[in-house]
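Ticket #4471: complex job returned nothing on first submit. Input attached below:
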Amino acid sequence: DGGITQSPKYLFRKEGQNVTLSCEQNLNHDAMYWYRQDPGQGLRLIYYSQIVNDFQKGDIAEGYSVSREKKESFPLTVTSAQKNPTAFYLCASRAPGDTQYFGPGTRLTVL
Amino acid sequence: QQQVKQSPQSLIVQKGGISIINCAYENTAFDYFPWYQQFPGKGPALLIAIRPDVSEKKEGRFTISFNKSAKQFSLHIMDSQPGDSATYFCAAPMIYNQGGKLIFGQGTELSVKP
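Support reply: We reran it on our side without changes. The output follows.
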């Protein structure tokens, strides 16, 4: 089955902790994206990557970091510098000439 | 900053009725304009997408209409069903198509009453 997987589905973080959200795709897509979704709001772009070993900041990158060491993987780290990290996090990928496809999401809650 | 304005924020339709959601965009790249359907707790699923050189695209009960001169596009759901109750997002490609980035509308929460 081709698709995008995100893990874990639910994640709880204590104050001051860094946590890493996983995103994997087997669609052979070059481009991958991370979004944050808050209740009643649209999707806001955190980071995106067009190719392995390269990534760019989106609109709300502060307090987040990413890596792109493999084509199929684009993990997102929510650092302690992110003051309000409770949200639904979505990963997406895209093939050239196509649009974006989303994973199932990870809900992060700060305790 | 580029924006996409989506309306209405919420919509209640009777079963069998037509649901209409509108989006207006600013300058954009020549690329796909997608619509996504999202159920609570799930990731958005691509519903239908259109390129701006086409004025209309239909897939089953779902139709996108595109008005390039007015910079508007809309989603029509014919014969709306309770199972269509979800949040719908439109999106437009960013100008200069920066890495395939999309600008999303704020979403429309659709409720179809039986």
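DSSP finds no helices and eleven strands in chain B. Closing as resolved unless it happens again.
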